[in-house]
Design brief:
Blueprint: H1 2-21, E1 25-26, E2 33-42, E3 49-52, H2 57-60, E4 64-67, E5 71-72, E6 78-79, E7 82-85, E8 90-91, E9 101-106, E10 109-111, E11 114-118, E12 121-127, E13 133-143, E14 146-157, E15 163-168, E16 175-180, E17 187-193, E18 198-200, E19 206-212, E20 215-223, E21 227-235, E22 240-248
Parallel strand pairs: 1-8, 2-22, 9-12, 11-17
Antiparallel strand pairs: 2-19, 3-4, 5-6, 7-18, 7-20, 9-10, 12-15, 13-14, 13-16, 16-17, 20-21
Amino acid sequence: MTFRITGIITALLFAVSATGASAYTEQDVAGGGAISGKITFSGKAPESVKIPIEKNPEVCGTGFREIQEVTVDGSGGLQHAVVYIDKIEAGKKWPKPDKGWELHQKTCRFIPWIQVIQDKTDLTVVSEDPVLHNIHTYELVPAGTNTVRVTMFNEAQPTQGYTFTKNIRMRKGNSVKVECDAHNFMHAYMLALKNPYYAITAADGSFTVDNIPAGTYEVTVWHSLLGSVTKTVEVKGGAKAALAHQYSK
């Protein structure tokens, strides 16, 4: 009995220690550096998916909803990729919005299409449409070469102005697929990260992650359709390190 109690206490202490070790600490960064570059795509971009709009045309529009996940400019710059440092325990403050993180539904679209939020924090979901929406979020969990969708929350928003808040707590992954069970043409993605060292690529594929403590980091490039790649980057104090990646088909 004594051995079992001791074992339980040890396990609890280990769990608490592990949880504490993973927490991110906001602090001043002296002599920080940056990572800057461009994410591109070569070859013919995948065609957009066109889904017929069959419900609530007075709000959602008519015809088809076109979903273009791979958006490339004339020079191959890839928009809406996310570049982030996964493992960094202390550094700059989170750029938290004044009203906190929000996801809106307007004209039967999720806004924004791609969003990065802080893991283990609140997300407020707002419906601006006078029709029923049913937001359904899935954690995308890597499972070998496949991805498993695990429901996070599933809630109806029956009226315009209906708002609710959920705490986002990732278990095994960091990416979230957002859908509407009432409108199959509504889609979006979120990344819930442990630290604020990330950037979403602009229309030309460019990005900058700044105020990074000097060190060597594993930096991940993520795209909702094209997948992820991780590269090692050394950041020197007061300097800008370069990172580039080209997806191809």
